[in-house]
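Please, structure for the following, as C-alpha cells.
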Amino acid sequence: MDKFKLLTYSVIGLIILNIGIISFLYISRSNSNPNDNRRPKDIIIEKLHFDANQIKKYEIFIEAHKNYIDSLNTNNKELKAELYSKLKLQNINEKIKDSLIELTLVNQKRIEEANFKHFQDIKNICTKSQLEDFNILTEELEKLFSNIIRKPRPEFRPPPRPNFENNNIDNNEKSDFPPPPPPKMDEHRPPPPPRDGDHPRGPREGNRPPPPHWDHERPGDEHRPPPPPRE
C-alpha cells in the first residue's frame, strides 16, 4: 500500500468518526429533558392544567413560601459564619459550637417542613380531575427543584489585564496633537550660590582658578627633549 492510499483511508476514517460524534451529540441533546430550562412554576402550571384563578392562588403561595425560605437561608448563613469564626480561637467552647450547629439543623428542618406545606397548598387548590396529575408530579418534585437549586455556577474568569504599553504606542501613533511644550524656566528664580573649593563636586566654572600659563615652567620640563628643528 503506497502512501497516497494510506492517506486517503485515514482522511475517510476521520470524516466518518466526526460524523458519528456529531450524530451522537445531536441525539443526546434531542433526548434531554426540555423542562431543564424552565421554572418550576411554569412546569407545575402546565402539568396540573391550572386555570387563571388557580394560578393567582398559586402565585400567592409562591411569594409567601419564597419569603419564608429566604429568611431561613439568611439566618443559616449568619449562623454558619459565626460557627466558622470560632476556628480562629485557640480554645473553642464546645457548648457554643454545638448550639450553633443545632440551630442550623433546626432551620434546615423548618425549610423541609415549609417545602412540604407548600406542596400541600398546591394540592388543596387542585380539582378532582387534577389530583391524578398531581400524584404523578410528586414523583418529579424532588428532581425538579433540586435541578433548579443545584444548578452549577458559571466558571469565574478574571478580565484580561490591559496592555498599557501597546495602548500608549497606539495612542501616540493615532494622536494628531503636537507634543507638549517644555516647562518654562523661572525668570525670577535667583541663581544658585557659587561653590568654593571645599565642595565635593569642586568649584563652578566661574570660581575655578585659571590654569597655569604654558609659558611658565612646569615640573618635569627640564627632562623634556627639545623639539626637532623646522626645515
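Helices lie at 3-30, 40-48, 52-85, 94-124, 128-149, 164-174. The two ends are 97 Å apart (CA to CA).
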